[in-house]
Amino acid sequence: MAQVYNWQLGRQMDYRFPEAHPDRQFAAVFNINRCIACQTCTMACKSTWTFSEGQEHMWWNNVETKPYGGYPHHWDVKLLQMMNRYAPGQSWDVAQADEKKAPYGVFDGQTIFEVASNNNLPGVAIGYIPPDDEWTAPNIFEDTPRSRGADPAPAQLPEHKTWFFYLQRICNHCTYPACLAACPRNAVYKRPEDGIVLIDQERCRGYRKCEEACPYKKAIYRPSTRTTEKCIACYPRVEGSDPLTNGVPMETRCMSACVGKIRLQGLVEVNADGTWKEDPTNPLYYLIREEQVALPLYPQFGTEPNVYYIPPRWVPRDYLHQMFGPGVDDALARYEAPSRRLMAVLQLFRASQTIIFNFEVKEGPKIRDVNLNGKTWSIYDDTVVGYDKNGKEAVRVSVQQPFFERPAQYLNSI
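and the corresponding structure tokens:
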């Protein structure tokens, strides 16, 4: 095992391959607070990429209900239990937090790679292959009590007394992908130009080692071809080669179809050591590294995922700490009372299909003052302007959106 630096964990960790990073990294932020589980993203991905024979169970994008849902079923609970069996007492040392190298503190536990190596387990990472019956019902019936078999009585849901939330998931296109490390054929690779993780279908032999090792279970076996497939981050759109893009990088299908405006996707520049180049005008860098309002999903796995989440405000903090790490409290405090600049940047979510590389905020008048937890919070009608890869204006949106009143003669028209 080589030693690589994982800035999400704040320390060096074990990985199969030595340090190597792309010029830019595909990344995204999902705002869980806005999701209505309409599944528009799910169907946009399904109708584009996984509509063929042998792909019926493939949902590269899915929206699952937490705390009791998942696709495959209970993927995270099963892996957390496995990790706790071999390495109990996982913890974070937040006292060692460093703005640049360890923003969330230092992880004192063991990653999926270290659990495997320290316990002489087979493979490069601890994991499992889900049985076939766990690849069912990816999105439906998770919120609905239902009976099973011939019993007509209503089923009792697992306990979730006063809360639940929707978790949107795609491949995280990790900095240290477990699927890549586990493949004996070296069929999995990261593109040097954007860090998107792909599987070479000509090299793949369907050993399913990637599926076993991926902690997020986003590498999925296709029995009709005996190969494994996964989310490709709609790379023709991201690289600007799709005819619809006119040569300008465009957001993925799941991002651009989002009804709830919860998604913002882009590319960030990466330093040689894997940290992100400082760029406060890049919306992803600003949200993730400067405001730290968006957090990685299960950073303790050690893959350094590149999809980040603004946590849900109403969920018990212990649950969120387990899922998103120790940065939850600060992230929610910033989201619940956003700074003037953050308030403007939040308007960029799903405002344009064009990838926003840089932004600027044009200040506007004060709208009103709000009393929030005993403190005065001011709202301004600022305008955020987003620019594409070529520095051309792609979108312009204000904090206060205009109201349009439909004329009386058209009240019943669609």
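(Above: one complete record from the training split.) The chain has one domain: 2-313.
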